[in-house]
Please model this.
Amino acid sequence: MRDVEVEEIIVNFSKKHDIKRRRISPQEIIERCLYSLINEGFKALEEGIAAKDEDIDIIWIYGYGWPRHMGGPMYYAKNMVGLPKVYERICHYHSIYKNSKHWIPSTLLKQMALSQSASKL
Model:
């Protein structure tokens, strides 16, 4: 159900901030929601906030209701999507949204993605 008032607010904000409106694919929505979360998970590992990627997954599964059959965001990145793909897309969004800190690729993610790519050669 469309809300004309909300739509008007969005259109006015977009014009004011020179934001070009466009259709966003379901895949882009998934990537922009999940890949930034995964990137932050790798940063938490780098900084010692989390000891293991499984710790992050457990928090997401039991604390935030991540679907257990998907194994948590870190498992999803490693085993369902692949770290090289996640890293490539994070770099893509970083090139578009240079001022967004959550799109600065994690060094650990980069290392692991490159290692995973090399092992498939």
